[in-house]
Amino acid sequence: MDWLSDVLTAIRSGQPHAARTRAQAPWGVRFPPDDAAGCHVVLQGTCWVIPPSGPPLALSVGDVVFVPRVTGYALVDRPGSPEIEFRPRPDDDTSRLDQVNIHGEGATTTLLCAAYYFDRDRSHPLLDDLPEIVLLPAEVGRHASLRAVVELLGNELADPQAGTTTILSSLIDMLLLLILRAWLNEQAATTGTGWATALNDPATKAALRAIHSHPERQWTVDQLADLAGLSRATFAKRFSTLAGRPPLAYLTWWRMTIAARLLRDGDAPLRTIAMRTGYTSEFAFAKAFKREYGQAPGQYRRHLTG
User: pLDDT digits over 61-83, tens only?
Assistant: First the structure.
């Protein structure tokens, strides 16, 4: 069970968007508040990211920036340059592949940009743990897989060919996973709490693996503690500290997240969804779902598809 992929699959919505941006100074692109998380890689030249709060950050070739919660930010050739607004169109398949050109008379900066759409109503605490700007500076010998994907994405965007649309979707997904993996690995070595630590803690990871592999099972804290190799009290405290909620509360939250995805993306009967998420009856499932979402499962599905 690939826990990180599992989470991203469940909370993703819409299609990813990719663009290769070539900008000549002076230039600036503002990304307004949106449901999209943004990723930018400098392929040529230099620029600055203006975060929602805090001072501007200088970027150079190879630097990777991920903005998980879009509250409004900008990319500029230098602070103070004029800005144009950019808003991806998640409902338009053609928008997954763009070439953006901003003409000027100064130095040229080339960027690889990607946008990811998440269900903000079910944002996983992993994403909530991320800072408003994730910066992975280019360093020789580090993040080799991430650099390889960036190169492949840049090539596809620069020279689209047969199959590019499908290739882009896979590469954009890989880019996000590799960014999160790199950040999580770096944070795990410096912090003692949060999801970066949870994903590298053997006991917590064992419980998460069990919950994500078999959400339909009637897990107890004792059973999860046994898998973690800890006493019940020690496990419950460690899991709650690292994951941000008690084990069974996380289990329920994850079941409801799966249920929402199944209602949104398919036409499986409610009884089938109930069984897949650990409920012995459609009535029990509907009651739990309404408690979580404020509406019955059928109403939720009709609202999304209607």
Answer: 999 999 987 678 999 999 999 99
Amino acid at position 3, single letter: W
Type and span of the H or E element at 22: strand 17-24
CA dihedral of 263, 119, 10, 275, whole degrees rounded to 10: -30
Q: pLDDT-based confidence at 42, cuts 50/70/90? A: very high
pTM over 0.85: no
Nearest 5°: CA angle at 268, between 265 and 274?
105
Which 8-state DSSP code applies to residue 60?
-
Given a contact cutoff of 8 angstroms between Cβ atoms, the answer to whether 304 and 259 are in contact is: no
Query: Can you list the alpha helix ranges (DSSP code H) found in the chain?
Result: 3-11, 125-129, 144-158, 164-188, 195-198, 202-213, 221-228, 232-243, 247-265, 270-276, 282-293, 297-305
Tens digits of per-residue pLDDT, 163-212? 888 888 888 888 988 998 888 887 766 655 677 788 778 999 999 999 99
Which whole-number Å values give the CA distances from 239 to 11, 35, 167, in the listed order? Answer: 22, 29, 38
**What is the separation, in whole angstroms, between the first and last Cα of the chain?**
34
